[in-house]
Structure formats: C-alpha cells, structure tokens
From TrEMBL:
Organism: Chitinophaga caeni
Catalytic activities: (6S)-5-methyl-5,6,7,8-tetrahydrofolate + NAD(+) = (6R)-5,10-methylene-5,6,7,8-tetrahydrofolate + NADH + H(+)
Listed cofactors: FAD
Annotated EC: 1.5.1.54
UniProt-recorded name of the protein: Methylenetetrahydrofolate reductase
Keywords, sorted A to Z: Amino-acid biosynthesis, FAD, Flavoprotein, Methionine biosynthesis, NAD, Oxidoreductase
NCBIfam families in alphabetical order: fadh2 (TIGR00676)
Gene (UniProt): metF
Length: 317
C-alpha cells in the first residue's frame, strides 16, 4: 500500500521507522534483530536507506595501490522485499542520484515494481566522503527532482528507450526530503523551499524532514511551506541523541542545531547511561508535542538504537 494511502486512511498519527542496510557480509537476521523489538508498535511503513559506493585505495600484490569503488551497505532492494515478506508491512526504499546512471535507476525501479514495492523516497545523495561537491554520474541525475521526473515518467508508462514510451505504468508513491533548518548547500531557506515546491509540483506525494531537536523549527517550516502552496503531508524525522560525542557530530554532519537547554542537560551527565536517559526523555517530549500538533506520521531514524526508540514508543502510546 502507498504511504499516502496509509496517511489518508489513518485516524491517528502513524509510526514509521528508518533502518540502514547492514554492512556487507552480515545476514538479514541482523535486520530482523533490529526491527523485532519495534514491530509491536505497528509501523505503517519502514524506510531502508540507500548508499552509494565509496572510492578507496586497495593495496595490490606488487605493493602499489589501485582506486576501487566499494559499496559498504548494499542490499536495499532485497531488504525491502524481505521486510515486506517477513513482517507484512510496507517498505520504502530510498533511491539516490549519486553513483547511479539513469539506466541503473530504471532497472532498480523495475525490480521494485516486480517485488510489489509501492513506494520510493527520492533523494539526491551526498558527495562521496573524500569529495567536497556532489557530481552526478555521466548519464545520471544532478538533483532529486530529475530522479523524481524519471519515476513519474515510469508511472506514466514512459521508459528511457524512445520506442518504449508505452510500457507498463508503475504506481510508485513518491516521497522527497525537506530541511526545516535548510539544506546545507542552499544559500537560504527561501530558495530551498522553492526547490521543494518544484519537487511537490512535479508529483511528490509527501515530504519527510531532516532530523530536528527543536519542534518550533518544524512548526515554522510547515507554516512556511503552506504559505507558498506546499500542501502535501510533511512527516517529521526524529532521531535519538544518545552520546555526548553526537553534540558535535550531529550539527557538523547534518547541519542542524541542538537547543542549548538540551545540550546543557547532556553536558551535565556523568555516565553514558545518563546521556541516553536524557536523550530518550527529550525524544519522548518531542514526540508527544508533535503528536498533539497532529502530525501525520512520527518517523524515527532508528540507526542502531532500536531499544531507545522502543522506550519512546512505550511512553507515547
Ligand atoms: P535536492 O532536492 O536535489 O537538493 C539538493 C540541493 O540542491 C539543495 O540545496 C537544494 O536547495 C538545491 N536544489 C534542488 N533542486 C535544485 C535545482 N533544480 N537547481 C538548483 N538547486 C537545486 N542520503 C543517502 O545517500 N541515502 C539515503 O538513504 C538518504 N536518506 C535520506 C532521508 C531523509 C529523510 C533525508 C532528509 C536525507 C537523506 N539522505 C540520504 C541525505 C540526502 O541525500 C542529502 O541531504 C542530499 O545532500 C540532498 O538530497 P535532496 O534529495 O534533498 O536533494
């Protein structure tokens, strides 16, 4: 079922979770171990992230180095199929522009359609770790909106080959990303919002936000979106903060603020356990307030912390 149908039919705020594929070499059991403690809270859907290859230098037998491309977390499409089969819950694969040609994307979409996956979250992706600027693949997409157009074309039966403009119509429901504290490359929030509006006007069914730790940022963002005619559901993305190190890593990596009141509470903690308790309590309060505001879905980035998210679920029931 499509995410947008879940939202339209819901009587209350829904729950959804986001997971990463395991590192290459691990089994699907690691995904089930991660999700099992969360499934009794009936997520409407589960997102699975997509990861591009990274450039690495591998030592050859003669001692010299060769540049290779290695994908550390493959398997998004397979995991989505496994989740749907194992838990009978909808899966939402992320699709990214970075590292993929249009043809590879088309093939992934064909696989997903055959597997009965009804949803995709369409993203640009970031530059590889050791590179400053995002560069598309030759014959790849530069912006998420270009990838979105490709999915929309397939939803209208149009494939890449010119003589295949009357193919099977896929029926993907399309989500896109939004940034309450603006995307780090955007010169200002206004221009970022205009590009978000373009994605929505081009067919995106809903928006999922980057994580935020101050609900007011989300409330202001939704207001600004509505003012410029972005009327689709805007799903808040929420992440548990559970270590002191994250106080500097999260703002640097995701370009989001951590409110002073929250960071002061974390800094006062003497043990890791205390930090986790404060982080969990903060997320519970955020979730309760967002639920009272009437958000369509609470979307949790579970990233290795399913038991923290479980505590949050128990507290907000
Ligand atoms: P875009 O919408 O393409 O925007 C990128 C930048 O370009 C923005 O600054 C925007 O303002 C600007 N822009 C947009 N359109 C245009 C245009 N037509 N002309 C000029 N400028 C434009 N990354 C992964 O690699 N894998 C994942 O699974 C993943 N999942 C994510 C899930 C969520 C909910 C979020 C919020 C992010 C996720 N990311 C993931 C990270 C994401 O790929 C990065 O934040 C990326 O830098 C931007 O992606 P986007 O889809 O927002 O890009």
């Amino acid at each position: 079922m499509k995410v947008i149908e879940h939202i339209e039919q819901a009587k209350d705020t829904l729950i959804s979770f986001e997971i990463l594929p395991p590192l290459k070499g691990k089994s699907i059991e690691s995904i089930y171990d991660h999700l099992d403690p969360l499934m009794e809270f009936n997520p409407a859907f589960i997102n699975v992230t997509y990861h591009r290859s990274e450039h690495m230098f591998k030592k050859k037998l003669d001692g010299s180095f060769e540049k290779v491309e290695i994908r550390k977390r493959p398997g998004t499409v397979g995991i989505c199929a496994a989740i749907m089969n194992h838990y009978n819950v909808d899966a939402v694969p992320h699709l990214i522009c970075g590292g993929f040609t249009k043809e590879e994307t088309e093939n992934a979409l064909i696989d997903l359609a055959f597997l009965g996956v009804d949803n995709v979250l369409v993203l640009r992706g970031d530059a590889p770790k050791n590179e400053t600027f995002f560069e598309p693949e030759p014959n790849g997409h530069r912006y998420a909106i270009d990838l979105l157009h490709q999915v929309m074309h397939m939803n209208n039966g149009m494939y890449l080959e010119e003589d295949l403009q009357n193919g099977v119509k896929t029926k993907f429901c399309i989500g896109v990303a939004g940034y309450p504290e603006k995307h780090f490359e955007a010169p200002n929030l206004q221009s970022d919002l205009q590009y978000l509006k373009q994605k929505v006007d081009s067919g995106a069914d809903y928006v999922v936000t980057q994580m935020f730790f101050d609900n007011q940022k989300y409330f202001d963002y939704v207001k600004k979106c509505r003012e410029i005619g972005i009327n689709v559901p805007i799903i808040p993305g929420l992440k548990p903060l559970t270590t002191k190190k994250q106080l500097s890593v999260i703002p640097r990596t995701f370009q989001v603020d951590i409110p002073t009141e929250f960071s002061n509470e974390i800094l006062k903690c003497k043990t890791d356990k205390e930090v986790e308790q404060v982080g969990t309590e903060w997320l519970i309060q955020q979730s309760k307030e967002l639920k009272a505001f009437g958000v369509p879905v609470l979307h949790y980035y579970t990233l290795g912390k399913p038991l923290v998210v479980r505590k949050v679920m128990e507290a907000i029931q």
